[in-house]
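chitinase (Fusarium oxysporum f. sp. raphani 54005), 332 aa
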Amino acid sequence: MDKPCGTMGPGEIPVELLTHLFVSFGYINSAFEVTNMDGIASHIYKDIGNVKAKNPSLKIVIALGGWAFSDPGPWKEVFPKMVSTKANRATFINNLLGFLSQYGYDGVDWEYPGADDRGGTDDDGKNYVALLKELREAINAKSRDYIVTFTAPSSYWYLRHFDLNAMQSYDGDNPIGHQVLSHTNLTEINSALNLFWRVGVDPSKVVLGLGFYGRSFELESASCWKPGCKFKGPGSPGRCSKTAGILSYAEIMEIVDKTGGTPYFDEAAAARYMVYDGNSWISFDDPETFQMKIDYASKMGLHGLMIWAVDLDSPDLQALKSISNGELIGRT
């Protein structure tokens, strides 16, 4: 919302091309109520709910948490405390269901980073499962068909209380490593999904996530620019995204148009990569590599696709339209 350009207000969201809209991110306050992120006006939830007027069949889901929710500060300890007792969980569940009813939303998505260095506790795992179980029971008791989705490790103990699991196919490699590699890699996607199949997860409960952005790096040497070459840091921030190491799909297409360069094809990863501005390197998907991943998802019998995020697309919605025109039964 605070980007200088490349923004998209609720009324601009191309809901006619979507089946589900995930609102990222909602937070949970110390009273265990759903609230807005810092710097985001509370009326955003009502404004987004109003877009159903343009697509009555659209399902709107509030995504709770996100990486920044566990940053040092007032929010960091909320989740462990909320899930720590049955009474706290019941308070939150009651508040959540009231939120969904108030704004006409259709479900909740969990984006809780549970790593030890992100504020997690030893009891979070079992308490999280208890929360999911009790949430599902509360939804069933009200005879509602609210959707429950998440991004999390593959485990039957998590999955049995969910309708769908969003499996990210992006951010596989990032500027924490030592070599430039595609952050969206079909080989790694296949390996990750194999973990799901080993524990008996039904493919129809898995949605493949696609990223409308790329990961950029500053190469250590301009003479070594293929995947596997070393880098010395993240790429320069984009003029709109303003984040080192990340460029939106719109920004990437601007670079392609500006330089007249042809992105290289990484066949093993089913992704594109490109060198620009001397020693800058970026990996990303385009319509052709998106289709390769759609074909893979269809072959594996996945439920559908999700994207992060619609406001990162080009002004003509090239990425979204290429996915919407793809062939995938059960698209979401």
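Residues 327-332 have pLDDT under 50 and may be disordered. The radius of gyration is 20 Å. ok done for today
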